[in-house]
UniProtKB/TrEMBL annotation:
One Pfam entry name: DUF4190
Compositional bias per record (Polar residues), positions renumbered to this chain: 16-33
Keyword Transport among UniProt keywords: no
Regions that span the bilayer: 69-93, 105-133
InterPro entries xrefs: DUF4190 (IPR025241)
Positions of the DUF4190 domain: 69-123
Name of protein: Uncharacterized protein DUF4190
Top-level taxon of origin: Bacteria
The organism of origin for this protein: Rarobacter faecitabidus
Keyword terms: Membrane, Transmembrane, Transmembrane helix
Residue ranges of the region described as Disordered: 1-46
Bias type Low complexity, positions: 34-46
């Protein structure tokens, strides 16, 4: 025979029905839930769980796009304003590191091209100065006028 107080027994769809969703069957054990107006049992501490929070849209946040100073750095370095390109490139690298924006490659290219073009410009100036100094060292006293 089956126990008539067993809430999990099958009675062929007739007679007693199992408790509905959300109700607890009488299991024969003492009730461990706290009743209003009563203190909790000694030594028993309830678990405090915090719900996880998710972004409101359900999608991960995207970076804010390519850094504008990185683009300006590359353009200035290519056009020939090397010092401005180098300065903008270093500022853009710092911003990209702190904000997570895209454009690190553009900023690096702007800095590298800027340094290379500044070095080429300085070498060109030195070459012109040395060439001009060398051409004026001819002795003009050997040429006599009649």
């Amino acid at each position: 025979m089956t126990d008539p107080n067993n809430p999990y027994r099958y009675d062929g769809g007739q007679g007693n029905q199992s408790p509905s969703y959300g109700t607890q069957p009488n299991s024969g054990y003492p009730n461990t839930t706290q009743q209003p107006g009563y203190q909790s049992q000694a030594g028993y501490q309830g678990q405090n769980y915090q719900a996880q929070s998710y972004p409101a849209t359900g999608y991960a946040t995207q970076p804010a796009g390519t850094n504008g100073m990185a683009i300006a750095s590359l353009i200035c370095s290519i056009v020939g304003v090397s010092l401005v390109g180098v300065i903008l490139g270093h500022i853009a690298l710092n911003q990209i590191k702190s904000t997570g924006q895209e454009g690190k490659g553009l900023a690096l290219a702007g800095v590298i091209i800027g340094y290379i073009s500044m070095a080429a410009f300085i070498l060109w100036i030195l070459f012109v100065v040395i060439l001009a100094a060398g051409s004026s060292s001819f002795d003009t006293t050997t040429f006599s006028s009649f």
